[in-house]
Design a protein that fits this description.
The protein is an all-alpha fold. The protein has seven helices and no strands. Helix 2 crosses helix 4.
């Protein structure tokens, strides 16, 4: 698939991270090209072949997130190959596998008051109030960063 090589070179020219293009190359080498064929023209790929590829991924021992990343690489390649004039139109692209977001949850450890105090004691004074705000309210860091100073009443200890 000459188109895939062109996509990778285009992404490299855009300044994409080496890890990004390496993943596309890995997906090509290990999954996409063995199934669809290296000499297959994009215009020759049928929806049936794409569905067969998706079923093969689903039947493998790969987790759904990895399968979805491979499908994303395939979609990027096919979309890159699409001719703006409409002469080559990629077939219906396979959709992602459903994934349960709760199965990949991170384990968080809550700090006790003494641990929070020790953490705040080691923090530089200019960020100590911010860390105390995050630790004592439980807001997400993005929400805390979006909080404006005018919203904070230090005397009444409210936001």
């Amino acid at each position: 698939m000459r188109v895939a090589a062109e996509l990778i070179h285009a992404k490299q020219r855009e300044g994409r991270a080496a890890d990004y293009t390496r993943k596309i190359e890995e997906h090509l080498r290990l999954y996409i090209l063995p199934h669809l064929g290296a000499d297959t023209e994009v215009a020759e790929i049928t929806p049936r072949q794409l569905l067969s590829f998706k079923h093969a991924l689903g039947a493998s021992d790969l987790d759904p997130q990895t399968c979805n990343r491979i499908l994303t690489s395939l979609r990027q390649i096919l979309k890159y190959a699409e001719d703006p004039a409409g002469y080559i139109v990629s077939p219906a692209l396979p959709r992602n596998f459903p994934t349960a977001q709760w199965s990949a949850r991170e384990a968080w450890q809550l700090l006790g008051p003494s641990e929070i105090g020790a953490l705040l004691g080691t923090a530089p004074s200019e960020i100590r109030a911010f860390l105390g705000y995050v630790a004592n309210t439980g807001v997400r860091v993005g929400t805390a960063l979006a909080t404006e100073l005018a919203w904070i009443d230090r005397d009444r200890r409210i936001v």
